[in-house]
Amino acid sequence: MLKNNNAAKPLPTEKAKKEKKKLFHVEKRFNMALWQSVLVRFGFILVAVFFGLLVLTMAYSKINPFVSFGNLFIGAFGSLDKFLEFLRDSALLLGVGLALIPAFKMKFWNLGGNGQILAGALVCVMLMVELGGTMPDFVIVIISLVAAIIAGAIWAAIPAIFKAFFNTNESLFTLMMNYIAAGLVGIYIYWRFPDESNIVPAQAHGRLPILFNSNVLIILLVATTFVGLFLYLKYSKHGYELSVVGESINTARYVGINSKKVIIRTLILSGAICGFVGFLIASGIDFSITKETTHRGMGFTAIMAVWLGKFNPIISIGTAMFITFITKGMSQVQMSNSRYITDDSATNIVMGLIFLFVIASEFLVEYKIMYNKNGKETDIFEIIGNFFKKVFGPVGRFLKKVFTAVGRFFKKVFGAVVRFFKKLFKIKDKPEKKPVKDAIDSLDEGSMEDSEPEKSPSKKATSGRKKSQKEGK
């Protein structure tokens, strides 16, 4: 007889299910506490710095890793000028990040930050060159500011219009706009300054005013932009609409939101902020322009900053400062070891390792790696924590006992010294004051005793009084 292959197969037992599970698998994490996520990120940063300096030491054996670690902080906080420069560069990176956050919240992947910065800087430099000496500097600054913002907005609006009406790929479109902007900068320099080896001389007119320091005004302007954008995203109708469009275009259409209008409007805002950053660089720092270095690669670096900040403007402040700290620190390491490090290849490798570890920490904050042993699943973090607990637990208990014993010893010694001086100078201890609450309670008890009513007379006394009254009558 033929076997029935379509017969229902028996369900696998629980044991078989456990055996089929993989040794490691990834699950979404929902319950990590804030202190745990901070500890994970901080631990990964320390490990990244250690591995980075180890690679640097392996590449150049004469470099001291401990000195290099100190140079990381010297590069950012070594002097007041370095600290202000650190804050300025952090502010500029944050400014580009602020430009990208609205677009990214709307799921429009704007990779054209560099081109939009160049567009704003190019218009600013052109006005500084052509109008310099013909009118007051503050007028040139105002005109350059407005023109740079408009140029950045136009440069971002072009791919936005194609995305809204023709559904083009915004990532590729904005990326190609970067190369066009760089080409326009090269053409202008070659046309306007053919005898200067394709370099725009530093302009003396149209510079941003100096407030205490050349960096302070730039920091204040970016801080003002931050406050304005934060309020725009959190409390305005436009901020709500771009979030809805980012979640679902169909949902936005259903509730009556014009998605095309929102896309174009949001990219105009994004490009305007990038153009504003280009104005700050050209009018406040470089006073010139180049197609390679003016944008400082911030259009791409800011993507990592806002991604690490979860597209939150407040968290992005910390991520921008961290990236700037690493960049400044590694520049100081390279400068201090200029005899051995002749180019920036090694420092770029170290920076890449650090950023790689930081991104890996974000993965472990969002997801957990489960280890399956004999059908029992355990979070890999729990296994690591138990390991360190076993290794350092006895050490911790020993140190606790040592510190407790030392504390008791000093308590006895200082107690004896205090008693000796009290006897020597005949200082008497002040009587302990009752707490205010006990004093009030005692006062209340006393007043209650004083105000107790007299006891009522007995029955015998009352009957005797009545008898005497009758005899009197």
Keywords:
single chain; 473 residues; mainly alpha; 3-stranded antiparallel sheet; 17 helices; 3 strands; 72% helix; 3% strand; globular
Number of strands: 3
Mean pLDDT: 82
Order of strands, main sheet, comes to 1-2-3
Q: Order of helices and strands, N to C? A: HEHHHHHHHHHHHHHEEHHH
Radius of gyration: 37 Å
Uncertain spans: none
Topology:
Blueprint: H1 14-20, E1 24-28, H2 34-59, H3 65-77, H4 80-105, H5 113-131, H6 137-166, H7 170-192, H8 216-235, H9 237-247, H10 249-254, H11 259-286, H12 298-308, H13 313-336, H14 345-366, E2 367-373, E3 376-379, H15 380-424, H16 436-450, H17 459-472
Antiparallel strand pairs: 1-2, 2-3
Structural notes for this entry:
This protein is mainly alpha-helical. Among the domains are: 232 residues, no CATH class; 52 residues. It is 72% helix and 3% strand. A hairpin with a 2-residue loop joins strand 2 and strand 3. The model has no long low-confidence stretch (mean pLDDT 82).
Would you kindly provide a brief summary of this structure?
By secondary structure, the protein is mainly alpha-helical. It has 17 helices and three strands. Strands 1-2-3 form a three-stranded antiparallel sheet.
